[in-house]
From TrEMBL:
InterPro entries: Rossmann-like_a/b/a_fold, ThiI_AANH, ThiI_fer, ThiI_N, THUMP_dom, THUMP_ThiI, tRNA_STrfase, tRNA_sulfurtransferase_ThiI. It comes from Anaeromassilibacillus senegalensis. This is Probable tRNA sulfurtransferase. The gene is thiI. Its EC number is 2.8.1.4. Belongs to the ThiI family. Keywords: ATP-binding, Cytoplasm, Nucleotide-binding, RNA-binding, Thiamine biosynthesis, Transferase, tRNA-binding.
Length: 392
């Protein structure tokens, strides 16, 4: 039995004239993700993408799991190819779905015939398949309203397909069709989720992480690498830039009032990230901030942080509760990594009483004690990078 994966496209089909470039991007992303598993033919026809293994022994289970994480895939199913005659369709349906059909009690058949030369019309195909399955599986009866299984048969130009269960895909639009943005990534729960959300809207990602050795450990940086690896199962490959932040943090600690420490530090993060983002061809920054979650995420604090960046800053989690963010982190499987206890540079030298209603003028005055340009230049120059790819 020859099995393939059929993919239903999501919002892409609404893209009018741009549709083709969206489809190309999706097919390219699928190719990249599946290539390590073996040779596949991936092509589009009649608003469906066909993923057909071209070698024996390909792990289709693993392929399906990867397909389910590619943005732009709204739903997908594994399907079995049959020859375009009723005899083959009936036998294939019974064989392919045998395990499921033997354990349930009701079913219905839905057929679609896009090849109008096929001698039977769709309702006739459904009736024939239904009758045959009733004969083969005495445990079954037909229930058109609430069946345990909907058996789907499609007769297309180049073959007939019996579908297995349709599964939801990751949704969104293909990565790379929306431009490029830099995610400020910590080892926390929020920023990996923010990265995932924006990649889901078609953005290609570059990651920027601030590390403060020896206050933060190598293990803390490795945690971020591991997190990004998870994100890249969805978002595709990316570069991670690690910015040495110790000097800046020590300068702020030594020269600025404690209550403004965190905000000044965050403004430096924005500026340094922006410089790297620009070099990498990004047009926006992304953070995992959520309004009111901590002192540096009050409205007034965000106004001050935002003012340090020239690029738009996307904060996809701004209106999201922590419990909802946690649920998303679990769904994309970053949560268990995020809760590993390693210091983040944000928690080094945290003030006892941070300002929740900072004043811009005082902040700027405090900042003027620093040689910002030299500090930024220095940390950006010492930035290192590595490549992150999914499925090591
Ligand atoms: P997260 O769970 O994403 O760390 P948080 O609730 O802990 O968020 P903060 O630590 O104040 O909040 O950070 C807010 C945002 O600033 C993060 O979501 C992230 O985008 C960015 N950020 C914080 N620390 C770092 C870091 N070390 N490197 C890069 N970006 C960071
Ligand atoms: Mg954090």
């Amino acid at each position: 039995m020859k099995e393939i994966i059929l993919i239903k496209l999501g919002e892409i089909v609404l893209k009018g004239l741009n549709r083709q470039s969206f489809e190309f991007a999706l097919i390219r992303n699928l190719r990249r993700r599946l290539e390590p598993l073996g040779k596949f033919d991936i092509r589009e026809a009649q608003s469906t993408i066909y993923v057909e293994p071209l070698e024996d022994g390909i792990d289709l289970e693993a392929a399906a799991e990867r397909v389910g994480k590619v943005f732009g895939v709204i739903a997908f199913s594994r399907a079995c190819m049959a020859e375009k005659n009723m005899d083959s369709i009936l036998k294939t349906a019974a064989d392919y779905l045998r395990d499921q059909l033997s354990t349930i009690s009701s079913f219905k058949v839905e057929s679609k015939r896009s090849d109008k030369h096929f001698p039977l019309k769709s309702p006739e195909i459904s009736a024939a398949v239904g009758e045959y399955l009733l004969q083969q599986f005495p445990n079954l009866h037909v229930d058109v309203h609430n069946p345990d299984l909907e058996v789907r048969v499609e007769v297309r130009d180049f073959g007939a397909y019996i579908h297995g269960k349709a599964l939801p895909g990751a949704g969104g639009i293909p990565v790379g069709t929306g431009g490029k943005a830099a995610i400020l990534i910590s080892g926390g729960i929020d920023s990996p989720v923010a990265a995932w959300q924006m990649a889901r809207r078609g953005l290609e990602l570059t990651a920027v992480h601030f590390a403060s050795p020896p206050y933060t450990s190598e293990r803390a940086e490795q945690k971020v690498v591991d997190l990004l690896q998870k994100v890249s199962e969805y978002a595709g490959r990316m570069f991670m830039f690690t910015v040495p932040f110790t000097r800046i943090q020590e300068e702020i600690r030594d020269k600025c009032p404690e209550e403004y420490f965190t905000l000044i530090m965050r403004r430096f993060m924005m500026r340094a990230a922006e410089r790297i983002a620009r070099k990498e061809g990004c047009s926006a920054l992304i953070t995992g901030e959520s309004l009111g979650q901590v002192a540096s995420q009050t409205l007034q604090a965000i106004v001050c942080t935002d003012a340090a960046a020239m690029m738009p800053v996307f904060r996809p989690l701004i209106g999201t509760d922590k419990s909802e963010i946690v649920a998303m982190a679990r769904k994309i499987d970053t949560y268990d990594l995020s809760i590993q206890p390693y210091e983040d540079c944000c928690t080094v030298f945290t003030p006892k009483h941070p300002r929740t209603r900072p004043e811009m003028e005082k902040l700027l005055e405090a900042e003027s004690a620093l040689d910002s340009e030299a500090l930024l230049e220095d940390c950006v120059n010492r930035t290192t990078f590595r490549k992150i790819t999914a499925y090591r």
